[in-house]
Every structure is written in structure tokens, then in C-alpha cells.
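so my prof wants the structure for this chain in the C-alpha cells format not the other one, which i didnt know existed until like an hour ago. anyway here's the sequence
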Amino acid sequence: MLDKKLLSILVCPVTKTTLNYDMQAQELISTAAGLAYPIRDGIPVLLESEARNLSAEEVLSIKKKYRS
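here's what i got, hopefully its the right format
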């Protein structure tokens, strides 16, 4: 589990937008960039080269899930 304070200051290195935490997948999601950054051993890996590309369907689903 990521610390809430840490999560509140982390941003996508590509778009500088906020990230959503997917606890089940252990990823930080940037819907703006369409990327999912892995969390390994509790440490976010915010490198574009390590990120997984999200499909358009995944981005829409995530936006609906985290809409406030």
C-alpha cells in the first residue's frame, strides 16, 4: 500500500498530471498519458520506458472508476 501523502505529490513524468493508484494491479495510472507505471517492492517506477501502454477501453474504464 502506498502512503497517501506520497501519492498526493506524485505526478505523471510525461504529462505532469495526477496519478490514480490501482492497488490490485500495483500500478499508478496516468489516464492523460495512457500509461500504467508499475510499483515494485512498494516503490513507484515512474519511468516512461517501464510503463505499460493502456488501451482506449482501459482508459475509459479507469476514468469512470476514479471519477469524483
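also thought this was worth mentioning. The chain has one domain: 4-66.
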